[in-house]
Design brief:
Elements (H helix, E strand, L loop, with lengths): L21 H4 L2 H5 L4 H20 L5 E6 L5 E5 L8 E2 L4 E2 H7 L25 H7 L1 E10 L2 E8 L2 E2 L4 E4 L6 E8 L11 H14 L4 E6 L4 E5 L5 H9 L8 E9 L8 E11 L5 E6 L2 E2 L3 E2 H20 L12 H5 L2 E9 L11 E2 L2 H21 L1 H32 L5 H4 L15 E6 H11 L5 E6 L11 H4 L3 H10 L25 E5 L4 H17 L1 H5 L3 E4 L4 E5 L2 E5 L2 H10 L5 E4 L8 H9 L6 E3 L2 H15 L3 H11 L11
Parallel strand pairs: 1-10, 14-17, 16-18, 19-20, 19-21, 21-22
Antiparallel strand pairs: 1-2, 2-9, 3-4, 5-6, 5-9, 6-7, 6-8, 10-11, 12-13, 13-17, 14-15, 22-26, 23-24, 23-25
Length: about 650
């Protein structure tokens, strides 16, 4: 049987290479890390980097950035101006090399003491790659007494080089471009990106001013840190740290491997300890290292080693206690490192991490030595740091034990009918129909069980008053069988918000077994308190159920009014008055009994029948207000409680048993 020739041939003529602008336009993620918004944002950083490099060399102290409403961007500096005229050595115009040639630039000899010793851009990709990926780019360059103008469209120079005499002494480069929607899936770079990146660059380039204008919102902002990271860490710390800010700087030389060239490294660092916020920020050659790399590894190793050594030397560990980890330190640490090197190994073109071994080793050794000296010279602060790190550690370990215990209690093959005491399930498996009634006590369980529709209504009784979840810690909360039983029945896990308990958060709304969770208690003081306790528990442990409109309160009638063959139920005093005004003849009226004393028919009609019952949706603001008021009345704020009772206690006097 002959093989089909319909498939395309794969031979020596099948291999091709991308040329010119297509090298970027067809594969933007290779250069920018993404063909989406993140990649588009990186084009801004590439052009900005060149202006920052000029300022770092001592040419210009101000950079102006404009974000236009049509998503174009302009960056203007006051540096020396990009050389764009004819290059005798290369026998080409420099504008071709800078704007149209990948891997061409003036920063390749930075390690030999020439221009741009500590440069953001070393690869010679940025300006060209940005130009290639733009719908258009306009460049205006002032240098050598001339004004040079270039205009590109979709990677091609369509204007040539326009050169005019310029008599002013002003120099600099102004580049305006619009990212191309043919290259990037999204070019709407948000205002927040510009604010973030310009602030970060101001932090690590002391004394350099960034002026930013957003045309869309018609707002202007200026970013300037005269003393760089010193000013910034004081801003972060805001005087709330439990140690003073400690500043370090160092300059050294070394190599990543014996056969690799030696290069220069200098860095500054500032740190303090603070229990309200924590932050680890690394910058290298002015680039923010989102993923850290070498400096981050150095900090983790050095701080853990130095603090562990201090704790051991001062016998602060308990017997057989495990040693600290960096996460225990990180919980209270604010540190900013600003480093520069003449050779840098970035993880990729997006420059979010560096991998230099020498930088890591040099920083590790330096921080270990300086921390040891710091602890000797600052005994009180060293003691505070060690004690706080141990508090963080023990809190983390308690949280981990809590997490393990919660998982044991709330997961597994749950046969709720057998494992949850007195829980009464419904028959339906359709979550969109299923309702869970949380009722007050065993007597209410009996009447609700007889009065419900067993097809879709399930019941779980609350045995007595449950724990106040606002006052209790998690360990105590999850020792409560009532609470863990209720969480088992809900089925969706728990949400715990604490820096030490991030791994406990196993909440999954998709696992919720109910369409409605209905709190049903007596219409008396005890009933209201139990309702509040249950609501507070849900607010603290599963708040998403409230925000997703899953939690309701079933209103119970206050009065039962009988007139002949008719029975009326009044849920408020006003309703009682309205009903009585319409009745002609004799009637009897009685305060409603507790749920446990109600007849099944009455339970169905007043509380469980979807056609006649009254449900109050619990919204997040109601839940928050309830929790706040509950905390005021039963929490630790004695002064606030006294003031509230003095001002509002009279409202509740009729609910008090004075007999």
């Amino acid at each position: 049987m002959a093989l089909s020739n319909s498939k395309k041939q794969y031979n020596d003529d099948s291999i091709s290479s991308l040329k010119g602008a297509d090298r970027v336009r067809l594969r933007p993620s290779v250069i920018f890390g993404s063909d989406g918004l993140e990649g588009c944002e990186h084009t801004v950083f590439e052009i900005l980097s060149n202006s920052i490099d000029e300022a770092r060399e001592g040419f210009g102290n101000k950079i102006e950035v404009t974000r236009y409403a049509d998503h174009s961007v302009k960056i203007k500096d006051h540096g020396r101006g990009i050389p764009v005229d004819y290059n005798q050595k290369e026998e080409r115009y420099n504008w071709e090399l800078v704007f149209c040639e990948l891997y061409a630039g003036g920063k390749y000899n930075n390690n030999s003491g020439e221009n741009y010793e500590f440069s953001l851009g070393l690869n010679g990709l940025g300006t060209c790659a940005t130009q290639y990926s733009s719908e258009y780019m306009d460049a205006v360059i002032l240098r050598d007494g001339f004004k040079y103008t270039l205009h590109f469209e979709k990677g091609e120079n369509v204007s040539g080089l326009i050169k005019d005499e310029y008599n002013k002494k002003t120099t600099g480069t102004e580049i305006k471009w619009r990212p191309d929607t043919d290259v990037f899936t999204d070019i709407n770079i948000p205002n927040e990106y510009f604010v973030d990146i310009l602030k970060r660059q101001a932090i690590v380039n002391a004394g350099l001013t960034f002026e930013y204008y957003d045309e869309e919102t018609d707002t202007r902002q200026t970013f300037l840190y005269e003393n760089g990271i010193k000013d910034y860490i004081n801003e972060l710390n805001d005087g709330k740290g439990f140690t003073e800010v400690y500043y370090l700087e160092n300059e050294t030389r070394g190599r990543d491997r014996e056969d690799k060239p030696e290069y220069k490294l200098k860095f500054e660092a500032a740190f303090c300890f603070n229990n309200e916020i924590n932050s680890l920020q690394y910058y290298h050659n002015s680039s923010y290292l989102e993923h850290g790399g070498s400096p981050d590894k150095a900090v983790r190793s050095a701080f853990t080693s130095a603090i562990d050594k201090y704790i051991k030397a001062n016998n602060l560990y308990k017997k057989n206690e495990k040693k600290i980890t960096f996460s225990d330190i990180e919980d209270s640490l604010i540190i900013v490192i600003n480093s520069f090197s003449t050779i840098t190994s970035y993880e990729n073109q997006t420059k979010k991490s560096i991998t230099n071994k020498f930088i890591q080793d040099a920083m590790t050794d330096f921080f270990k030595r300086r921390l040891e000296i710091y602890f000797i010279e600052n005994k009180l602060e060293a003691e505070k740091i060690a004690n706080q790190v141990l508090i963080n550690k023990r809190s983390r370990e308690t949280a981990e034990n809590t997490r393990i215990n919660i998982r044991k209690k709330l997961t597994g093959n749950l046969d709720m009918n057998n494992r949850v005491d007195k829980f009464v399930n419904c028959r339906s498996k359709d979550v969109n129909r299923r309702e869970l009634y949380i009722v007050e006590g065993d007597s209410a369980l009996g009447s609700c069980k007889l009065g419900r529709d067993a097809e879709f209504q399930a019941i779980i009784p609350i045995r007595g008053k449950i724990l106040n979840c606002l006052k209790s810690d998690y360990e105590k909360i999850f020792k409560s069988d009532i609470i863990t039983d209720l969480l088992k029945v809900l089925g969706c896990g728990v949400e715990i918000k604490s820096k030490h308990n991030s791994n406990i958060n196993d909440f999954d709304l998709a696992q919720l077994r109910w369409n409605k969770v209905i709190i049903c208690t007596d219409a008396d003081v005890d009933g209201y308190q139990i309702r509040t306790l249950v609501l507070t528990m849900l607010y603290r442990l599963v708040p998403t159920l409230i925000s997703e409109r899953k939690v309701f309160i079933a209103e119970s009638p206050l009065y039962e009014i009988n007139a002949g063959k008719n029975t009326y139920f009044a849920y408020t005093e006003t309703e009682k008055t309205q009903i009585l005004s319409k009745i002609k003849g004799k009637y009897t009226i009685q305060r409603s009994k507790g749920l446990g004393e109600n007849q099944p028919e009455m339970m169905w009609e007043t509380t469980m029948n979807p056609e006649t019952r009254r449900l109050i949706l619990v919204t997040p603001d109601v839940a928050e207000l309830t929790a706040e008021k509950f905390d005021l009345l039963l929490g630790e704020n004695l002064k606030g409680r006294k003031e509230y009772i003095e001002s509002d206690g009279y409202r509740y006097i009729d609910l008090t048993d004075l007999s």
